[in-house]
Structure formats: structure tokens, C-alpha cells
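thread: overnight batch results

M.L. [08:02]
morning all. the overnight job finished for the chain we discussed friday. pasting input first so we're all looking at the same thing
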Amino acid sequence: MLDARGFEEVSVGDAVLAGGEAAALVAIEACVRLVPGVLGQAESLSEESFEDGLLEHPQFTRPRTFEGLDIPEVLLSGNHAAIRKWRQDEREKTTRERRPDLWAKRPAN
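M.L. [08:03]
and the structure it wrote out:
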């Protein structure tokens, strides 16, 4: 049927869904966020999961302490080089732990 209509099949990952609505929302989100102006900062796209083969670093917001968890001091320091290093270290750690398949594909590994 897809071939007869000239459609392209797209996967949103390994999942069994009751209908196509959730998959359609994922596809819409993936496309719309690439439209200029949709995201607050275009640089956000370059730091996301999978952009360079790593998962994204943890995200924090206010308050400084939430449910007993503190924002790491380095993120409050204003030291942009230290913040970049912390984020990169966290991306590597998270990818090693959660997606060893992605980690194994990294050139440095």
C-alpha cells in the first residue's frame, strides 16, 4: 500500500501503540522544532541527544533545591568553560550508562 501511494515509512522507535496518534505527534514535534524561530535559541539544536552521537546532559531549573536534589554548584558558578566540561562529562556518562550501543559507535572508543 505504501509503495502504491509513494509514501515513505517512518519509525519513531520500538513501540507498540494502540493507534497512530502518538506517533503522529512525535513526527510533528520532530519536524516543527526545526522551523526557524520555533525554539527559543537555535543553538539548542546542536546540544541535543543524538546530534553528535551522545545523549543530552541533565537539565535543571529553579528552585536551586527540589525534592532534596541540588543544582550542581558548577552550573551556578558562571564559569562557562567549567560548565561546558561538566555538560560534556555528563553526556558521556549518561550515554555510557543508558545507551552502550551508541557509546560503542563513538570514534574515541
